[in-house]
Amino acid sequence: MKILIVEDEPALLNSLASYLRQDGYVVETAADYARAHEKIKLYQYDCVLLDLTLPDGNGLDLLRALKADNSAAGVLIVSARDALDDKVRGLELGADDYLAKPFHLSELSARLKAIIRRRNFQGSAQLVFQELTVIPDQAQVLVKGEPVALTRKEYDLLLYLLAHPGRVLTKESIAEHVWGDAADAADSFDFIYTHLKNLRKKLQEKGAGDYIRTVYGMGYKLSSEQ
Ligand code: CA
Predict the structure, then answer these.
(1) How far is the CA of 154 from the centre of ligand 1 (A)?
(2) Same domain, 210 and 184
């Protein structure tokens, strides 16, 4: 899952970024409005943590821009401005949640998980596809009830495919989602193939069918159809 943190306080930005990376997220950061605006125009995120008071603009305008683009990203406003009208305005504009500073990182984490669960997994705590089960809150993968040990990237790949069953995911979108925004500048996306090969092998060794299909010239999709 890829998160964009928009925050102009360097210490807070760093602590949020390292905390969420430890939690397993792919984390991108923007320390001002201009950078954040550039990023949301170029890249897709699962959730944006949005500070409202930025040196060169208002976070609510970034929220408006996301909504105008029909972005699928969740938005969690994280702001020192605990004014009721800011909160109401943010929620009216389509933010998913609002957290006032200061806050505990554990609360941020719980709210973030709730947003992602609601938006990507229809509110469910686990994703099931044929004999595969993924429990995102615990980063756990089961095949026929038995746990499978995956690397972080293998897990992220599987979760991305499971969140979009039957849909063709391009190599560019997979690279960007699992490796971060800078991956779109890669010369080749062969590294995806290597990780997918290992993932398929590990799942099949535990008795899962082979559901990750190559769509020639386009990318990959998760499908139970031959
Ligand atoms: Ca600020």
Answers:
(1) 35
(2) yes
Quote the pTM value. Answer: 0.91
Same domain assignment for residues 12 and 81: yes
CA 54 to centroid of ligand 1, rounded, Å = 5
**Alpha helices (runs of H) in the chain, residue ranges in sequence order:** 10-22, 33-42, 59-68, 84-92, 105-120, 152-163, 171-179, 190-205
- How far is 185 from 189, CA to CA, in rounded Å? 10
Q: What is the pLDDT of residues 91-144, one digit of tens each?
A: 999 999 999 999 999 999 999 999 999 998 888 889 999 999 999 988 999 999
Residues 90 and 158 in one domain: no
Total domain count for the chain? 2
Please give the distance, rounded to the nearest whole angstrom, from the Cα atom of residue 26 to the centre of ligand 1.
22
Segment 175-203, tens digit of pLDDT? 999 999 989 788 889 899 999 999 999 99
Domain that holds residue 92: 2-121
> Domain check: are 193 and 157 in the same one?
yes
